[in-house]
Amino acid sequence: MDRKIIIGTRGSELALWQANFVKDSLEAIHISAELKIIKTQGDRILNLSFDKLEGKGFFTKELEEELIAGTIDIAVHSHKDLPTENPPGLVIAAVSEREDPAELLLVLKDCTDVRQKLSVKFGGLVGTSSNRRKAQLLAVRPDLEIKDLRGNVPTRIGKLRDEKYDAIMLAKAGVSRLGINLDEFHVEELGATEFIPAPAQGVLAIQVRERDHILYEALQDLNHPDVAAELSVERNVLKLFGGGCHLPLGVYCRKDDDKYQVFTSKAEDGEGFPDRLFIESDTLEGLPERIVAKFAKDRKFPLKVFISRDISAGSYFRRALEKNKIEIEARSLIRTVRTITRFDSYILKNIDWVFFSSKNAVEYFFQLNPTFPKKVKFGVMGTGSEDMLRKNGHFADFVGESTDTADVAADFAAMANGTAILFPGADSPMRSIQQGLSAETKIIDLPVYETVLEEGVQPTGADILVFTSPSNVEAYFIDNLLQPQQKVIAIGKSTGKKFDEMGVSYTLPFSPDEIGLAEAVFGI
């Protein structure tokens, strides 16, 4: 290309990083470029939250106007800032690879409490101007106070450093691109399947004039069609909901093996409890429409859900179901009994890791008041065990989030092979994690409780039955049968295996926690 390309960009540090990234990428394919800085409405008005700004595209409109006018040749955007419709005459020519779309929660160290989920002290003040973040935060921590936070990434971090907030939320992509050191804060990384990001978060969009065919073709060298395919789902869901940056909507699509997985969170407003959905599909065709249909106001929910464990009044699962007027029947079909009252503390002398496969194991182990002669690391199976570990004042160094224990075992083995590991647990453990470890790993099993099946379990007339362990399945079906209209959700593949043996179909949640359960109920 014989002309120098003019790239339009906002003037923030992050926007300039993004524009220079595109400039360097163009020069790598022998296209000369220079930057032109353009101030947008979102840059000028910093005293209002996003939902108070009028119209759409308040970080992109001015760039698009200059592109249409011909004063620039390319506009570089954070894709999540773009409205779902291009202005007439403009197209997205290329999208970048996706930076990790996780969120970061930065917490002042003096305001950190690992006993709380997300490690922010009870009643802490968290800064964000995103209704999507606000709704998801309050869903898991309703005690938090949320206050608007505007400005570029360094400015927001500076406000936290000045103690105007106890914690703030940022996209990991921006922090990573700027290479900001966060050692002065406690940092919680919230993965995209746990805390669902904005549609197209972590992706750059390169926008050009539709008639500029030569430039469009040249930019195909920078385009990532696989990312564009996933974004088409996210952006079309946003479009079908008629939303913009103010909508409390998170959508994240990814390809896992040969299937597309889509995670969606939607609330009515920043104060509202979000409904969540997980869908897996072999094809992208019709996927956005399927997702939006699940959120229709007239959709019919099950009248009653049974779950085989106690559910507290303020739990995520209870609030998610009661919001949609679903009755909950919660009763455990088993009971656990402590098996030891003390153990030889010498066991802990050379331990490197302690791994818990259940929250019962955490609870019973710490009732023994263990004293660790050296620093140990903690691994847990699932967020329920992680939360129980937090309540005992410890932070998990490894959290197995998959419903497949073989996957968890492989991930844990990659970190812990060759070390000494203590496994507090049931008196007859399944040993799924232990079996995935190498021969040179020292394994110590410590039975701290046993499981006893309840007798004479009464049937339930609930529409959906959620079983939380193989023992609960066994206890229920000693005396009861599944009714034809009833549907089953099984937590974990070991629980699902019981139903495979029985020839009963079931739904397996994506994650074995209360959020995953709510997603599964919402998706049936």
Describe the protein's architecture and organization.
By secondary structure, the chain is α/β, with parallel strands linked by helices. It folds into four domains: 5-100 and 200-291, Periplasmic binding protein-like II (D-Maltodextrin-Binding Protein, domain 2, 3-Layer(aba) Sandwich), CATH 3.40.190; 103-190, Periplasmic binding protein-like II (D-Maltodextrin-Binding Protein, domain 2); 300-333 and 454-523, Rossmann fold, CATH 3.40.50.10090; 336-450, Rossmann fold, CATH 3.40.50.10090. Helix content is 29%, strand content 24%. It is built from 16 helices and 23 strands. The chain has helices spanning 13-28, 41-44, 61-69, 131-140, 153-161, 172-178, 213-218, 225-241, 287-294, 316-323, 359-366, 382-391, 405-416, 470-476, 493-502, 514-523; strands spanning 5-9, 33-37, 74-78, 90-95, 103-108, 125-127, 145-147, 167-171, 185-190, 204-209, 249-256, 259-266, 275-281, 304-307, 327-330, 334-338, 353-356, 377-381, 398-400, 420-426, 442-453, 464-467, 487-490. It has a six-stranded mixed sheet, with helices on both faces. α11 (359-366) runs parallel beside α12 and α14 packs parallel to α15. The protein is globular, with a radius of gyration of 25 Å. The mean pLDDT is 93.
Summed up, what is this model?
Keywords: Porphyrin biosynthesis, Transferase. Helices cover 29% and strands 24% of the residues.
In which order are the strands of the major sheet placed? 16-21-20-17-18-19
Oligomeric status: single chain
Shape call = globular
What's the main sheet like?
6 strands, mixed
- Report the span from N to C terminus: 54 Å
CATH architect. name of the largest domain: 3-Layer(aba) Sandwich
Tell me the structural class. Answer: alpha/beta
Based on CA atoms alone, the radius of gyration comes out at 25 Å
Q: So, the CATH homologous superfamily of the largest domain?
A: Periplasmic binding protein-like II
Number of domains: 4
Strand tally: 23
Strand residue percentage: 15-25%
Mean pLDDT: 93
Uncertain segments are: none
Helix content: 25-40%
CATH topology of the largest domain: D-Maltodextrin-Binding Protein, domain 2
CATH class of the largest domain: Alpha Beta
Tally the helices.
Answer: 16
